[in-house]
Amino acid sequence: MIIRRYTKDDEKGWLRCRVLSFLNTAYYDNVLKEKEVYDHPSIELVAIRDNQVVGLIDVEYEKEAKSVCTSRDRPGGMIWHIAVHPDYQRQGIGEKLLEAVVEETKRLNLTYLEAWTRDDVWVQKWYEKMSFEQTTSYYHLYFEGNEISSDKVEKLYTVTMFAHYMGSDVQQFDHLKRKHLCVCYVREL
Ligand SMILES: CC(C)(COP(=O)(O)OP(=O)(O)OC[C@H]1O[C@@H](n2cnc3c(N)ncnc32)[C@H](O)[C@@H]1OP(=O)(O)O)[C@@H](O)C(=O)NCCC(=O)NCCS
Q1: Could you tell which of 80, 88, 89, 137 is best to mutate to test the pocket of ligand 1, judged by most ligand atoms within 8 Å of the CB?
Q2: What is the CATH number of the domain that holds 48?
Q3: Is residue 83 lining ligand 1, measured as CB closer than 6 Å?
Q4: Which parts of the chain sit beneath pLDDT 70?
Q5: DSSP string, the chain
Q6: What total number of domains does the chain contain?
Q7: I want to staple 55 with a disulfide (CB 3.0 to 4.6 A). Which of 5, 36, 51, 93 is the partner?
Q8: pLDDT, tens digit (0-9, with 9 covering 90-100), for 9-54
Q9: Measured from the CB, is residue 91 less than 6 Å from ligand 1?
Q10: pTM for the complete prediction?
Q11: Residue 55: which domain range?
């Protein structure tokens, strides 16, 4: 297996790897058709084995505190994507990708890495094993059909709705079939 920089020719393999790895997680329907391009500088790496993308990591980083990240008043890097193809998980590929990023951050004077993930216990365990600590959280809420209580515009019937909830009265959403705690992880560098 080699770890190298992402190039445009990797895009199809990158998208496939990401969608397959997310299928078994709380992000199962977060599908991209194109890889995004970042406004700030980034570290974008792929792991290649058997002539395919089997792992990926994207970190967008800041020169000015809080222009990308949210956690500290000093420059950091945001992990927007980390994924390992399901047939290759738990073989140390995620860890190698992360360590390759950490190596690069040394010459960039970044002081921490930030990542947000939902309530997949095994994914959270991975972050904790990689020396990340939980800092804050809020809710991702999905409303379907009659879970949506009001339609304020005449003849407009909301069928599905996705919302962020930052408050503390989360019991009012106990009736939702789909509700995720979105957790912030930070690793000091
Ligand atoms: C999280 C992820 C990137 C880890 O990459 P990986 O190469 O599989 O993990 P590593 O081999 O580096 O580390 C393995 C450790 O991670 C944890 N882990 C990974 N997969 C696990 C699983 N299915 N069940 C339990 N623990 C698991 C364990 O702590 C494991 O250590 P152990 O095998 O000694 O118990 C990868 O599993 C993945 O792509 N997950 C789905 C995508 C995702 O959720 N990305 C983050 C969204 S923000």
Answers
A1: 89
A2: 3.40.630.30
A3: yes
A4: 150-151
A5: -EEEE--GGGHHHHHHHHHHHHTTSTTTT---SS----SS-EEEEEEEETTEEEEEEEEEE-SSTTSS--S-SS-EEEEEEEEE-GGGTTSSHHHHHHHHHHHHHHHHT--EEEEEE-S-HHHHHHHHHTT-EEEEEEEEEEEEGGG-----STT----EEEEEE-SS-GGGGTT-SEEEEEEEEEEE-
A6: 2
A7: 93
A8: 999 999 999 999 999 999 999 999 999 999 999 999 999 999 999 9
A9: yes
A10: 0.95
A11: 2-136+184-188
